[in-house]
Amino acid sequence: MPRVHSISPCLWFDNQAEEAAAYYTAIFPNSKMGSISRYGEAGREQHGQKPGTVMFVEFELNGQLFGALNGGPLFKFTEAVSLMVWCETQKEIDHYWEKLRAGGDPKAQQCGWLKDKFGVSWQVVPTILSEILRPGDAEGSARAMSAIMHMHKLDLAAIKKAHAG
Known about the structure:
This protein has helices at 17-27, 44-47, 90-101, 129-132, 138-149, 156-164; strands at residues 10-13, 32-38, 54-61, 64-70, 82-87, 113-115, 121-126. It is of the alpha/beta class. α5 (138-149) packs antiparallel against α6. The termini are far apart.
């Protein structure tokens, strides 16, 4: 798989790397699975994995290269790092929100955040958000932010309405 960017995220899973990569590539357009590396006998005393099990998966989401590592249960995902999905329309927001949230944490987080079934945090946000929240219109930005703070899945029309006053 060609290197699309010089920096790409690597997600650490217990043993679901291949499943997660397949799940994500089915959700996003312009996405594909890449190479899959497997554990061998070498280093088994450190990694403890059965030879032949999936170690690392390369995949692309909408042209962005990702890695997924089956590293065991040592580390868990937290909200300290999230993946942002920038959406042009409410239809896109609804699509990604529903697909990524399926089987995940049923308690939706505020401001467009959610956790998927693997524990990865995502932010599903409209592309106009940075424009709406920029410093040039403090009152409109404050109204929009107030509205956003009361939302789980973001409502693009309601944000625009709040911004306009």
